[in-house]
Amino acid sequence: MKNPIENLNKIFDSRIRLGVMSILVVNEEVNFNDLKKMLDVTDGNLASHLVNLEENGYIKVHKGFIGRKTNTTYSITKAGEKAFKDHIEALESMIRGVR
Amino acid sequence: MHSHHPPQDTLQDIKRIMERSSRFISLSGWSGISAGICALLGAAAAYIRIKTYQGSRYDTGIAATNELLTDLMVIAAATFVAAFTTAFLFTWLRSRKDNVPVWGRTAQRLFINTVIPMAVGGIVLLRAMQWGYFELVAPGCLIFYGLALVNGSKYTVGEVRYLGYGQIILGMINLYWIGAGLYFWAAGFGLLHILYGAIMWWKYERGDR
Fold this sequence. Notes:
The complex is a heterodimer.
Chain A: H1 15-26, E1 30-31, H2 32-39, H3 43-55, E2 59-66, E3 69-76, H4 78-98
Antiparallel strand pairs in A: 1-3, 2-3
Chain B: H1 7-22, H2 29-56, H3 62-98, H4 105-130, H5 137-152, H6 160-175, H7 181-205
Helix pairs in contact in B: 2-3, 2-7, 4-5, 5-6, 5-7, 6-7
């Protein structure tokens, strides 16, 4: 581990993707609208980041209904949890490296 | 939060988002203060009512005792409604300022997790009263409310846990100091709430205005 920056996950360079992961790691299931409100982003922007995280296998998508309205919820996968933890550790080791 | 940002800031951001998304943090200190004042007023009303009963008890019988109990129940219910309403009002105002829905997911989770111990406690105390164990009402209220706060503190500002510990301790002492229930009740629901509310306001809301 000569250069801790190498351990940072490129996928989490995006503030929004990292934000989504931060929310999902402490909440079992969160729907699209709640994510949107918490991160203060537009529909299209959030949707594209969610697709990216899903394609990387970090989050799972559940499509459901509340009455007749669609309710899409998201949850973190085991792989996502591990990637997030590794990223945090990399950030922490960077801080230690600075000192 | 790109890679060129200092990692400390990124970690701070992550922590903030985690907290904001999983806890209802708009609980206002004013809610504690207002609930505490309602409790003190309620305790004062109950105290006066009990004194008038004790002053006249030699020429009355079971009817007067039943009347006293009904009045005390009414005072307790009115106190609860007033405390809950004013507490809700201040928290609602704060959540609007924070732009957090007052009945969002985090608030619902907080509600469920505090209501369960309180509802169970309510039933236990109702049964205790039916069996004539009125001495257990005040310590029981304090203990079950304290447990509700400790349980709920995982879903809101962490300091609520200490308010819960305070209520539980008062309730436990009261269990061994039967007869002083009203004083313990006033200390727990009145003074502790006001103290907690004032500390929380000082810590988090002082700079808001």
